[in-house]
Write a structure and sequence with these properties.
It is elongated, with a radius of gyration of 34 Å. The chain has 14 helices and 15 strands. It starts with 8 loop residues before the first strand and ends with a strand. With 497 residues, it is an alpha/beta fold. α6 packs across α9, α7 packs across α8 and α9 packs across α12. Strands 2-1-3-4-5 form a five-stranded mixed beta sheet. A three-stranded mixed beta sheet has the order 10-14-15. A three-stranded antiparallel beta sheet has the order 11-12-13.
């Protein structure tokens, strides 16, 4: 491969490969592109000039149309700008870019640094000439149209599946995916090894995860917290469908999914019933939404209460409306309740909580404890409310279609939408009321009330306390007992039920 002078000119080339979707994780699409680019380099080489693939740049499972940053593509541009190579080899121009903006930036760089682009499918693209730039722009426009057309087809397919109540694909939703008994092969993206995985039926509930959704729903409806739900899942070793621990923010989103009640959603709008198993009833789901989205709900971030009465017991100093909280300080190192304003002295938290717990357990152990349960809303026709809810949502959809078609003006659309949303809010609240669970359920009527009480999460115990008792911590000076005896007379209680 030498000319008459014996000199061989080596042209440094960059090879760029990209594939939009790598469903198996095997990198097979980009590997084939790279092989073809190596073959192209050999075809371009002559005895006097050798095209050398100096560096390989590969963006796997990343679309050029999506607008997401492509790390290797950006690194390649940096190398070209620095003059490290003067030729780019690619399988086709649409592997390099499908965005007109990116193309123009690439053209400007190619002109500035005299970069040539050779492709396996489209041949030489000389961006230093008007003809080459025109060719690149035409190919770019065609690629852009193909991406947009594909995007429209995918969106239409997802809409069609959603309306049919079918799973739309993607990451396995937490709560569904029961093994069918069959298996399939896939590539482990972390190791590159071929592994065998079970085939899942996405319409069937995954027992452990479905039970978690049901537990979280009932917990919230009983007055429990999202933090408590997240802790319960972590204690039970329950992780997300991707194998991660579920934080409180994610736990909240899990319970707010309409699909939990078998409701199909498309672009944020409920469009009907899904074909998958419902994990909770619709009234339960509406109830959870009403609770978690209630503006009056206390969602203060910070340390969660670790004591039964913290921020629930009231200060007993005359005229003080504040609550007490538990902390350490004063002459004793033991945790103690004191008013959040700092006045009124302090009381040993453990002693106070033991006293209140004994009162509650004693009351719930009596034969007439069942009378404490609030009667369910027998006057609520859940089925009729669900039909009414669907009709109102359909009316909102129809109003939007009429406005889009010019059948009504903005004022008519706004007036009709406001009225429909107000009606929907009333119906949703009635459904929520139908699903509200009395915090005392599960304790009242238990064979061993003490055992049932201890089995409750602290959030549930605090919910029972709020339901049953008003507690005021009076100033320690009232009714002081001699010696080290605890003054239970300085704890004032009043039953709410």
């Amino acid at each position: 491969m030498q000319n008459l002078t014996g000199a061989i000119r080596v042209v440094r080339c960059y090879v760029y490969a990209r594939i939009s979707q790598d469903r198996t994780g095997a990198h097979l699409g980009t590997e084939r592109q790279i092989e073809d680019c190596h073959a192209l380099a050999k075809r371009l080489s002559t005895p006097e000039v050798v095209y050398e693939a100096a560096r390989i740049f590969e963006d796997n499972d990343l679309s050029a149309y999506s607008g997401k940053p492509r790390a290797d593509y950006l690194e390649m541009l940096q190398g070209l700008e620095e003059g490290d190579a003067t030729v780019v080899l690619a399988w086709h121009t649409d592997r390099l870019h499908r965005s007109p903006v990116e193309l123009e930036e690439y053209i400007a760089l190619s002109e500035r640094r005299s970069v040539l682009t050779h492709t396996v499918q489209a041949g030489l693209i000389d961006l230093s000439t008007p003809h080459g730039r025109m060719t690149a722009r035409i190919l770019g426009a065609v690629a852009r149209q193909e991406s947009e057309h594909k995007g429209a087809r995918v969106a239409r397919k997802r809409q069609q599946k959603a309306k049919a109540g079918e799973w739309g694909g993607g990451i396995r939703p937490f709560g569904w995916g029961r093994p069918t008994g069959e298996t399939r092969k896939k590539i482990d993206k972390a190791t590159g090894d071929e592994i065998v995985v079970p085939v899942l039926d996405m319409d069937k509930a995954a027992p452990e995860e479905a039970a978690a959704i049901k537990y979280g729903t009932e917990l919230v409806l009983s007055g429990g917290s999202i933090q408590g739900f997240a802790r319960w899942m972590k204690d039970g070793g329950i992780k997300s469908s991707q194998g991660n621990w579920i934080r409180a923010t994610d736990a909240r989103l899990l319970l707010l999914r309409p699909r939990n009640a078998g409701i199909a959603v498309y672009q944020g709008q409920e469009i009907g019933r899904g074909s998958w198993d419902a994990l909770v009833t619709e009234p339960q789901f509406r109830g959870v939404v009403a609770v978690l989205k209630n503006p009056a709900r206390n969602t203060t971030r910070g340390a969660k209460p670790k004591w039964l009465g913290s921020l629930i017991y009231k200060c007993g100093v005359p005229g003080c409306p504040e609550a007490v909280k538990c902390g350490r300080g004063g002459s004793s190192a033991k945790p103690a309740y004191r008013c959040i304003t700092g006045h009124g002295g302090s009381r040993q938290a453990e002693k106070v909580d033991e006293y209140i717990t004994d009162l509650i357990v004693s009351r719930l152990s009596r034969p007439d404890a069942v009378d404490l349960l609030e009667p369910g809303p027998d006057d609520v026709d859940v089925a009729a409310l669900q039909v009414q809810s669907d009709q109102i949502r359909q009316r909102l959809t129809n109003l939007a279609a009429l406005f889009g078609a010019g059948g009504i003006d903005m004022s008519q659309f706004t007036e009709g939408s406001d009225a429909a949303r107000a009606q929907l809010e009333v119906v949703t609240k009635q459904l929520a009321r139908a699903s509200k669970r009395d915090p005392l359920v599960g304790v009242v009527g238990a064979t061993d009330v003490t055992k049932a009480w201890k089995a409750l999460e602290l959030d549930r115990q605090r919910s029972v306390l709020r339901t049953l008792l008003d507690v005021r911590i009076l100033p320690i000076g009232r009714g002081r007992l001699p010696g080290d005896a605890f003054n239970y007379g300085a704890i004032e209680t009043a039953w709410k039920r």
